[in-house]
Amino acid sequence: MNLFSFFRRRRSAPVARERLQVLLSHERGNGGDSELLAVLRDEILRVISAHLTIDDDKVQVKLERGQAVSLLEIDIEVPGRLDQQIRKRRRPAGPPLLPAPST
Amino acid sequence: MARVVVVTSGKGGVGKTTSTAALGAALAQAGEHVVVVDFDVGLRNLDLVMGAERRVVFDLINVVQGDARLHQALIRDKRIETLSLLPASQTRDKDALKPEGVAKVIAELREKFDWVICDSPAGIERGATLAMRHADIAVVVTNPEVSSVRDSDRIIGLLDSKTERAERGERIDKHLLLARYDAVRAARGEMLKVEDVLEILSIPLLGIIPESEDVLRASNLGVPVTLNNPASAPTRAYLDAARRLRGETVVMTFPSQKRSLISRLLGRKAIA
Lengths: 103, 272
What we know:
Chain A has 103 residues and is mainly α. Chain A has helices at 3-9, 12-29, 33-49, 82-88; strands at residues 59-64, 71-76. In chain A, 48% of the residues lie in helices and 12% in strands. In chain A, strand 1 (59-64) and strand 2 (71-76) form a beta hairpin. The radius of gyration of chain A is 22 Å and the shape is elongated. Chain B has helices at residues 16-29, 46-50, 60-64, 70-73, 99-112, 126-133, 146-159, 164-167, 183-187, 194-201, 213-221, 225-228, 233-245, 261-266; strands at residues 3-8, 34-38, 75-76, 83-86, 115-119, 137-142, 173-181, 205-210. Classes of the chains: A mainly alpha (103), B alpha/beta (272). The A-B interface holds A 9, 12-13, 15-16, 19, 22-23, 27, 31-32, 34-35, 37-38, 56-57, 59-66 and B 48, 51, 53-59, 62, 67-69, 71-72, 89-92, 216-217, 219-222.
């Protein structure tokens, strides 16, 4: 064991402390964020599937909880070219999905 | 053909989660496709020991209840590509874990992976019995200490009666993993010896994991012990145990009783 590894070896407790602080601040804040995430995923997918055909198996939800910022990523794999997909699924005439912005 | 392993003990705090992470990582390091599954609903910790606690999105109960697809709940390890984690739910009550749902998830995992390693909660309640339910192989983690040995004996009884294999009249492969073993204390007659525990429980020995500070260090960092320090004594013991699980014959190495120079000069082990 050289001098460097001697010092490095002592440093695991601060890491443990920091990991726990981040984790517990999230867990105390909201007990069940998996429910929130499921709702978010479903609503986002509903909006997108009005324009695109989405395969449920090709949807990946990723999350990285951080101290100051968390990152929520929703990856949707779309076969072929995106613009063609959108053209194919252009909605027939009907009420608009979202109310037109008032001018 | 996928194998389902349950890591169980009855007693809490003996090293189930540490062993699940270490064996899972060791098998994955050998190129096997491995998923480690946390069955401790309400008190999940495998995510923390694996260092994936910030990335949990969905969990076992979300999948069992159909709120999420299995692939959405699986967390791919960032260090070993062939290792995945299926976390337990932190919030919902244990009754949400339904036997039929668990059976379906395990069947699906068998399709995707070579090894499905289930980390059982302590106790003999629902979570523990569901974790062992579909197992082909059981790893019984035991400390050389009276209450742990007694609880392991109880768990062995359950493995022989409450598992799917047992109910079909088949044999479930049971292995003893003796953890937190201190060879010096055992030699001094202060701790049950390997032979004592083996004689009492009479199941084959998978490995002896020596008591080591490397285990705490690895859990502090959120790294399975076999990945954190490849040269450490517990790592070697877990790697050998994983090879035995794969069917290899590996000579059992007993933790050495070598003492440091200082402790030899003092005539005893420094930390007793």
